[in-house]
Recover the amino acids of this structure.
């Protein structure tokens, strides 16, 4: 490959070639969810396969050659992984864990076993996995950046400071997984200095969640005095593979783990369990006491190869940072520049401007139309999916960050919850306001073309070029409505099958409105035969191409598939479902098969006809789905 060709401002033009050769799975996709996970290069998978087929790796607990090979490699890779973060093995130990979350849980597992328990302070931009720690603490406080700075300059986050014995765990993300905002790495050492001051006798441990930062930036732990006590991260976010994480512990603080009560296989030198209950934890390295059970040997081997391949392709994390930083500025500026014809911005951006603030390659935003009305996230995500664009929308596991960005008060979030809003569902605007964000995140192999195509996508679908036309003033309206010409119904669309295309109610016909809504709206749904769950367009975007037509003369619902039908599949391009509710059409009810729709538990009646069910299964490529009818319809 030779040295990377830097085009300008840190952008590596060679990435385009690497992308083509090494990431075949990205062909035809615009992958913008690197904060979720990053794709893995082909040569990593090829080399891994080769390593697995040439060597025999045993469980590292015996003298056999295969076992010894594993033991040796696991140890070498541990040191190499520490080096990746400039961490001296004399000062730090690295514990292999499943992911960043598992690393957090190990720390909490130890701290809650301290005789006094612990108090917990976390920054408001924390990932859900850090927020959950508060449930194990005696008391907890969530601080924003201003309160954080107050704390650093001497004010105290807890009212009652009586239990001076009880240590504090302070956790924060190095980079927010929601909007890419970065927080000073110096906080750990500042807090440590604070707690050594004569006025403050409580011990403070710091936990840095580096999961988002390390995916596109170097993390330098070369100074053990100023480093956080615990650092957690997930390797799949840097290399795409393996699914493995690390907890890096500053040895000076490793005593916290002596309080941990649980012990698992591999962590003890001796256990007595019949007449007496006694055990001796391993007394060597910390990781020997914390790695419960068999290590993920093959994943650890893959990590070694991942580091090799990453270095070969991208040289260093500094270079990755330069490249992604350049793209982030371009993305931010591109989205910011989009304006409707009336001058209003298209995007409300929550991320800091990467030009002026230290931040990761992430842009979090929402879209508004020319009148300032928020566009539904589910709609943006579905359209993006159809265009081969991979983005993340919603609450992105960052409750404090979202509430701050959107100005949501706790009562609003609770009210949204009571009205059926849940993490990970389609229900995304409540009371006219967004409940989540659109997150676009860039990574190592992102290119200028990805950025530009995404900005074009937003422009093409959401920028309004011409001012909206108001209805002509002489439309036939009830006399009482004459004075409010802005209120008129242009058309009514019902969605007879949940998540499929809509049906335009023909003009001039009466349409009944019932207490549950417009008649024939969401009368049917498609349910997964295995789980009984209603299928949604998010998982099955082809549902958008299933077009229902209500034919009252024939008494049937006709469903046409508007996509390409393979001539081999012998699939009819449409199917009819009777409108009548003759019980003979339905399959016998299976117990325990209920679906969740908009937060409500329902048991749909499913059709017995193989013809009907096969039509939908074949179109969507789900071997086991049923057409069902809502019982309350
Ligand atoms: C991804 C992420 C996590 C969680 O990582 P897991 O691999 O799911 O444990 C935690 N914090 C941040 C900032 C993240 O980006």
């Amino acid at each position: 490959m030779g040295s990377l060709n830097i085009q300008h401002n840190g952008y590596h033009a060679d990435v385009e070639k690497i992308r083509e050769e090494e990431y075949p799975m990205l062909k035809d996709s615009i992958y913008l969810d690197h904060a979720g996970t990053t794709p893995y290069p082909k040569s990593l998978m090829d080399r891994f396969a080769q390593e697995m087929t040439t060597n025999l790796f045993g469980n590292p607990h015996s003298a056999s050659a295969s076992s010894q090979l594993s033991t040796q490699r696991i140890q070498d890779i541990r040191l190499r992984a520490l080096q990746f973060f400039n961490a001296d093995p004399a000062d730090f130990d690295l514990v292999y864990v499943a992911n960043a979350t598992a690393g957090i849980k190990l720390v909490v597992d130890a701290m809650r076993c301290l005789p006094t328990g612990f108090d917990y302070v976390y920054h408001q931009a924390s990932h859900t996995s850090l927020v959950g720690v508060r449930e194990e603490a005696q008391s907890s406080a969530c601080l924003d950046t201003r309160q954080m700075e107050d704390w650093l300059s001497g004010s105290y986050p807890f009212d009652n400071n009586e239990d001076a014995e009880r240590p504090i765990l302070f956790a924060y993300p190095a980079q927010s997984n929601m909007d890419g905002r970065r927080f000073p790495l110096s906080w750990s050492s500042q807090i440590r200095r604070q707690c050594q001051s004569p006025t403050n006798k409580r011990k403070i441990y710091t936990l840095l969640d580096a999961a988002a930062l390390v995916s596109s930036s170097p993390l330098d732990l070369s100074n053990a005095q100023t480093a956080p006590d615990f650092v957690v991260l997930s390797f799949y976010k840097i290399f795409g593979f393996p699914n493995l994480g690390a907890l890096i512990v500053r040895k000076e603080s490793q005593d916290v783990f002596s309080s941990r009560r649980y012990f698992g296989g591999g962590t003890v030198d001796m256990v007595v369990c019949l007449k007496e209950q006694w055990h001796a934890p391993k007394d060597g390295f910390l990781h020997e006491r914390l790695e419960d059970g068999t290590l993920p040997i093959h994943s650890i081997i893959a990590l070694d190869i991942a580091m090799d391949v990453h270095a070969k392709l991208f040289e260093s994390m500094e270079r990755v940072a330069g490249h992604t930083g350049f793209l982030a500025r371009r993305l931010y500026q591109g989205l910011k520049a989009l304006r409707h014809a009336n001058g209003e911005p298209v995007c409300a951006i929550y991320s800091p401007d990467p030009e002026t603030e230290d931040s990761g390659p992430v842009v979090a935003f929402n879209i508004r139309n020319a009148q300032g009305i928020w566009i539904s996230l589910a709609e943006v995500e579905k359209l993006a999916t159809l265009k081969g664009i991979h983005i993340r929308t919603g609450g992105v596991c960052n409750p404090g960050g979202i509430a701050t960005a959107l100005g949501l008060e706790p009562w609003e979030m609770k009210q949204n919850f009571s009205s059926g809003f849940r993490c990970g569902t389609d229900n995304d605007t409540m009371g006219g306001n967004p409940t989540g964000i659109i997150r676009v995140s860039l990574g190592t192999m992102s290119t200028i073309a990805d950025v530009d195509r995404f900005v074009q996508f937003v422009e093409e679908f959401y920028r309004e070029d011409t001012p909206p036309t108001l209805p002509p003033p002489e439309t036939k309206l009830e006399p009482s409505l004459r004075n409010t010409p802005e209120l008129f119904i242009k058309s009514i669309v019902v969605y007879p099958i949940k998540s499929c295309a809509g049906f335009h109610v023909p003009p001039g016909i009466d349409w009944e409105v019932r207490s549950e809504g417009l008649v024939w709206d969401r009368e049917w749904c498609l349910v997964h035969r295995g789980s009984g769950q209603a299928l949604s367009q998010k998982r099955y975007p082809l549902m958008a191409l299933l077009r229902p037509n209500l034919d009252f003369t024939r008494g049937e619902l006709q469903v046409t598939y508007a996509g390409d039908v393979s001539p081999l599949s012998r699939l009819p391009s449409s199917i009819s479902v009777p409108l009548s509710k003759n019980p003979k059409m339905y399959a016998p009810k299976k117990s325990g098969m209920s679906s969740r729709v908009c937060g409500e538990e329902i048991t749909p009646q499913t059709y017995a006809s193989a013809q009907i069910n096969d039509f939908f299964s074949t179109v969507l490529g789900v071997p086991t789905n049923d057409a069902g009818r809502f019982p309350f319809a």
Q: What stands out?
A: The first strand starts at residue 6 and ends at 8. Residues 2-31+315-462 form a domain with the Aspartate Aminotransferase, domain 1 fold (CATH 3.90.1150.10).
